[in-house]
Design goal:
Helix content: 25-40%
Strand content: 15-25%
Number of strands: 13
Largest sheet: 4 strands, antiparallel
Shape: globular
Strand order of the largest sheet: 9-8-10-11
Distance between the termini: 39 Å
């Protein structure tokens, strides 16, 4: 009903042809969790969002209250029930989206990259939730790049490539694949899980100079940065510096303040205290936007062009050299074949690469990437690494 094109073949749900089931009724049987949780939200508060589906299907009030509480407990978000959805981190939004599907209690779950924005601990919690659903006899289909948390849960791994099923494996068969082949088909981490969870983001501290010792003066420096939202202290006395050519990874659990830090650096938010310097000069909020480029998690809010080429060239004086550079970047990031397509029609991973191409074309001296590998498979993650 949404996408144009020709549809062939049949889908059967509980012995009934899907084409004969009204779209509104399918939601009773199939719970969806989208790749971008924001696109499926309707309510302002978390509790209202979880209850929304149940209300639409006429579930009695007392039963709705119970289902909301049970779903929130299952996803460890009971403390968020009264909070505004728009203020949550993407990882927390993802949990809310899953809880809203759980509250309807469907027999089938279809989840599109549900772990994309979850930290390691949250991914483990989600794995436990999926395991519980499986014990309840639920059918679960998960489109994923990360498979490590599903290794002892999944019954089958179906590998799709260009719209066709290439192979069907068990997790055991997946584990014995050669390392390169396994990495080509999924973003599977071949490393030990961290043994200690990080502390809350407000308590983080950065070394004065992360990475190798250098005699270069810092290109970007942050001194005692502070930010709070109401009574919630998100960042407290954060200080660090970055040298030219240096890559700094900012890690931490969901809601630790990583996205807030990125928005402060790039001038999208105003700090409550502290100083941000570029080339040793203090930069106010409005001036930071010109030199520090922020690639958001929510890429739909950052793409405006009518085509990929138009996205790169919008707002610029187009010269043959600039057009050539834009074409080179699209080729470098494996996007050249989509140059004339509208950005909204791209997959999440393709949008990530397009946003990176825009930053590179603008030659921003500092680029802040917020969850840049969300939606990317192994090979394309390596492509982005090479482009940077």
């Amino acid at each position: 009903y949404f996408f144009t094109g020709e549809l062939s073949g049949e889908v059967w749900l509980f012995g009934k042809n899907m084409a004969e089931i009204p779209s509104w009724e399918r939601g009773k049987y199939v719970g969806n969790v989208f790749q971008d949780p924001r696109s499926q939200f309707f309510a302002n508060e978390v509790a209202g969002e979880i209850a929304f589906g149940c209300e639409n299907y006429g579930v009695p009030h007392d039963e709705i209250v119970k289902r909301v509480q049970d779903a929130a407990e299952a996803l460890s978000i009971t403390n968020l029930l009264e909070q505004k959805v728009r203020y949550l981190s993407y990882g927390m939004r993802q949990r809310v989206a899953i809880a809203s599907a759980e509250a309807i209690d469907p027999d089938i779950y279809v989840m599109d990259e549900p772990s994309a924005n979850l930290d390691m601990g949250a991914a483990e919690d989600f794995a436990a939730f999926v395991r519980l659903l499986k014990k309840q006899g639920k059918t679960i289909l998960i489109a994923e790049h990360r498979l490590y948390y599903l290794r002892d849960i999944a019954d089958r791994i179906v590998y799709l490539n260009k719209g066709e099923i290439v192979s069907v494996m068990t997790p055991q068969e997946m584990n014995i694949l050669p390392h390169e082949q396994g990495m080509a088909s999924s973003r599977v981490p071949y490393c030990e899980a961290p043994t200690r969870k990080p502390a809350h983001g407000a308590e983080y501290s950065f070394p004065a100079n992360s990475g190798k010792e250098t005699e270069q003066k810092p290109l970007l420096s942050v001194e005692r940065l502070h930010k709070r939202f109401g009574l919630h202290e998100v960042l407290k006395d954060v200080s660090f510096s970055c040298s030219p050519g240096e890559i700094v990874a900012i890690v931490g659990p969901n809601a630790a303040g990583k996205s807030t830090l990125g928005k402060l650096l790039s001038g999208l938010l105003k700090e409550d205290g502290g100083t941000i310097r570029f080339a040793e000069k203090p930069l106010k909020k409005c001036r930071r936007r010109g030199v520090i480029w922020y690639i958001m998690q929510d890429l739909d809010s950052q793409l405006f062009g009518e085509s990929l080429t138009d996205e790169l060239l919008t707002g610029k004086k187009v010269t043959p050299a600039l057009k050539l550079r834009a074409d080179e970047l699209l080729t470098l990031l494996n996007l050249a074949e989509f140059a004339d397509r509208h950005p909204a029609t791209l997959s999440g991973g393709q949008k990530q690469r397009l946003a990176l191409a825009v930053a590179l074309l603008n030659e921003a001296p500092v680029i802040v990437l917020d969850e840049p590998t969300s939606g990317l498979d192994g090979p394309f993650g390596q492509v982005c690494e090479a482009a940077c």
